[in-house]
Design brief:
Blueprint (H helix, E strand, L loop, with lengths): L6 E5 L6 H9 L6 E8 L16 H16 L3 E6 L7 H12 L21
Parallel strand pairs: 1-2, 2-3
């Protein structure tokens, strides 16, 4: 009714509510989008933010499958990937993008004409 969404979270010590979310979507209760936060182990995980330190291949593959399911059910998926997930969030995003290529429709990256830091406003 109000288009609220549960934020799906991949974080050590946090329940995985993906199956519950899909049940809501399938019953018509979920909104037309999903928001995912990939946090990882933000207490004892990789430190720093310059390189991949802990590869989470199985986890990224599982999320690629999940994103394909959600987009197949007509949901737009938004995500935020934290550095503690693998140690370097931009590289993790590129890895996830590679897994999704050919499975879901992805926007061009980088956007046409983008040079340097993009503006938020």
């Amino acid at each position: 009714e109000r288009n609220f969404a549960l934020v799906l979270v991949d974080r050590i010590g946090t329940a995985d509510l993906y199956d519950t979310w899909v049940e809501c979507v399938d019953s018509g209760l979920g909104p037309d989008f999903a928001l995912i936060r990939w946090i990882g182990d933000d207490r004892n995980g990789p430190q720093g933010d310059r390189e991949l330190q802990v590869l989470r291949d199985e986890d990224l593959a599982r999320w690629a499958d999940r994103i394909a399911v959600l987009t197949g059910r007509g949901r737009t998926v938004y995500g935020y990937l934290h550095n503690p997930y693998e140690g370097h969030s931009p590289a993790s995003v590129r890895r996830l993008r590679e897994l999704l290529t050919g499975r879901v429709s992805l926007p061009d990256w980088p956007p046409d004409g983008a040079e340097g830091q993009l503006s938020l406003f």
